[in-house]
Predict the structure.
Amino acid sequence: MGHDNEKKKEKEKQNGFFKEILIEIRDTIVFEVVWNILMLIPRMMIRVIKNIW
C-alpha cells in the first residue's frame, strides 16, 4: 500500500517539473512578443512622422 503512494508522489513531482518548464517557455514567448511590439512601435512612429513631413 505504502509503495503505491511513493510512486504517485514521484509522478506528481515530474508533472510539477514539466509544468515549470511550460511556464518558463510561456513566459519567454510572452516576453519576446511584448519586447518585439515595444521595439516595433517607435520604428512605426518614426516612419509615420517621416511620411507626414
Residues 2-52 form the longest helix (51 residues). The radius of gyration is 23 Å. DSSP finds one helix and no strands in the chain.
